[in-house]
Amino acid sequence: MGADERVFQRWQLAGEAHILNWLPPQPAAEPLAHYAARLAAAVPVAQACWLVGVSFGGLLALEMAQLRPLARVVLISSLAGPHELPWPLRVARALGLDRLVPPALLQQLPWAARWAFGVKTQGEYALLRQIIADTDPAFAQWAIGQLLRWRGVPGPGPTARLHSARDRLLPPTTGIDCLVAEAGHFLVVSHAAQISQVLNQLAKNSD
């Protein structure tokens, strides 16, 4: 919900990689598909590529792939469709809690985020706290609302999915290609080496 390029700093990818930075929603209630189209402007239409989306970024990757037919999607700690939304978030959607509870509250409760993300080491906790402190609350509230009310996309879905077995925020469902047993939602950081290995193998197999 606003994590930036710092979550990718441990990745070791063999090929060329580009990070797409978040854009401010315009207007404040911008629909996800419209936002994805603006984000996709950085990806040439005729460019074959992998769109790797982490958590909320996975939704954007799937939406962008609708506009970039040569792109293949990899989801990390994310959802393939709205049917995978866990029941606590469905309750939050029904009650409109994303509109009632300010996201800035999370910045005041970093220990709660540590539990939710399954962070174990002090180094990972320090990184998580820094990211949360730097996250724009308005963007986070928009992203949470988009996640809760996402309608999904048509098509075959992602090429590959990586998930953690102990993800407390978005528990794994079926169709996971790489399930990491001892990780949480911070899989992108805690198991960066394993993720890098999988991504490099996917790219190699597609050559």
TrEMBL record:
The keyword Hydrolase applies. GO terms for molecular function: hydrolase activity. Residues 30-195 form the AB hydrolase-1 domain. The keyword Hydrolase applies. Keywords: Hydrolase. Pfam families: Abhydrolase_6. Transmembrane segments: none annotated. This is Alpha/beta fold hydrolase. It comes from Hymenobacter nivis.
